[in-house]
Amino acid sequence: MKRLIYILFAGVIFFIAPGCKQTELTTLVSDGVAPGPITNAVVENLSGAAKITYKLPPDQDLLYVKALYTSKQGAVRETKVSYYNNNLTVEGFGDTSAYEVKLYAVDRGENVSQPLSVTVKPKKAPFLIVRDSVKVVSDFGGISVSFKNSTENNIAIVVLANDSLGNFTPINTNYTNLKQSSFSVRDLKSVDTKFGIYIRDRWGNMSDTLITTLKPLFEVKLDRTKMKGVSLPTDAPLGYSGAISYLFDGDLGNGGYYHTGDAAKMPQWFTYDMGVSVKLSRMTWFMRQGFYFNLHNPRKVEIWGSNNPSPDGSFNNWELIATHEQIKPSGLPNGQLSNADNEAAAAGETITFPLNVPKVRYIRFKTLRNWSDGTYVNFNEIYMWGAPE
């Protein structure tokens, strides 16, 4: 009977459609008869989710299928998929409890079928898997938080500490979908500090809080106005208005920059004087804007330190204190950038030095490879941190 009604209405629409408004057409399509129910549901439980495969009713005016379930917090969540699909995935479960999910078929007139109830029992949610992997250690000027996110879900890692009023409150939130990474929380005093770390997903589910007490390692940001380039015989020739001094001018924009000339070859290096002997903790360099993870920005580098550079430009009296390769968060090809790439570039590329590095005054920045595998090196700025002794 429903099929006959639908055919009759379709015929009427065919003859009168040219004179009808869209609102009138919508009304005529609604036959007032609900589609048949969803049947033969099969559940595949997933991490924090469940995939439900089903059989659609034969109704010709079927438009979509929707699923409804209620979270432990009382929120009703809805998932919709087109009638072209025979499955859907319900997400956002914060635990492994059993949940009732109701499936409905909906036609073009928004008539809703009788529900088919199925029970899902999701596996451990992604945010809880991340929580199990979290490790926290003292870092220079703060702490370092590492984690694994095997499902690459969008999560937030929230770090808590006492504020100036003694309230245990969030001081940093790291949003990520990276499979594995770490981040640092800086600019903290070198005193025993209580920290908390919990994980939150995009549905508002939260893990328990990891509580730990750590003492950030002492460091200060070095005075860039005391830093200057040192010209040694083997240093890379400059070009394209580049200068070492621009690396210490405090300008992260597209003003001055360091840029080598046409005669430069890989590997290549330049030398600078920090103006003070210091036990280094970390350094950060900033890529040139508009060329993130591309062209002449350094990709793989070595950092050398000395207190008495050889005047002939050789590596005599130099000690290798770090080797580092920059990683593009998204892994996308050159010229393509994700939000994570842009955020990482804006934060700068940081090298954390080993605790046993010697006190040095001079730095040699040696580039082994740039992002285009070419022979130029070009970037904007350098910051240095350490403990002057």
Largest sheet: 8 strands, antiparallel
- Going by helix content, strand content and strand pairing, the class is mainly beta
CA-atom Rg in angstroms = 30 Å
What is the helix fraction of residues, given as a range? Answer: 10-25%
SSE order, one letter for each helix or strand = HHEEEEEEEHEEEEEEEEEEEEEHEEEE
Rounded to the nearest angstrom, the distance between the terminal CA atoms is 91 Å
Estimate the mean pLDDT confidence.
91
Number of domains: 4
CATH topology category name of the largest domain: Jelly Rolls
Query: Tell me, what's the shape?
Result: elongated
- Find the CATH superfamily of the largest domain: Galactose-binding domain-like
Structural overview:
The protein is mainly beta and 389 residues long. It has 4 domains: 1-32, no CATH class; 34-120, Immunoglobulins (Immunoglobulin-like, Sandwich); 126-214, Sandwich (Immunoglobulin-like), CATH 2.60.40; 220-388, Galactose-binding domain-like (Jelly Rolls, Sandwich), CATH 2.60.120. The protein is built from 4 helices and 24 strands. It has helices at residues 2-16, 22-29, 126-133, 339-347; strands at 39-46, 49-55, 62-70, 76-82, 87-91, 99-107, 116-120, 135-139, 142-148, 155-162, 168-176, 180-185, 193-201, 210-214, 220-221, 228-230, 258-259, 268-286, 298-306, 319-325, 349-352, 359-370, 378-379, 381-388. The strands form 6 sheets. Strands 15, 16, 18, 19, 20, 21, 22 and 24 form an 8-stranded antiparallel β-sheet that branches. A hairpin with a 2-residue loop joins strand 8 (135-139) and strand 9 (142-148). The longest helix is centred in the N-terminal third of the chain and has 15 residues, at 2-16. The protein is elongated, with a radius of gyration of 30 Å. The termini are far apart. The model is unreliable at 1-28 (pLDDT under 50). Residues 124-224 form the DUF5126 domain. This is F5/8 type C domain-containing protein. InterPro entries: DUF4959 (IPR032527), DUF5000 (IPR032164), DUF5126 (IPR033431), Galactose-bd-like_sf (IPR008979). It comes from Pedobacter ginsengisoli. Residues 249-386 form the DUF5000 domain.
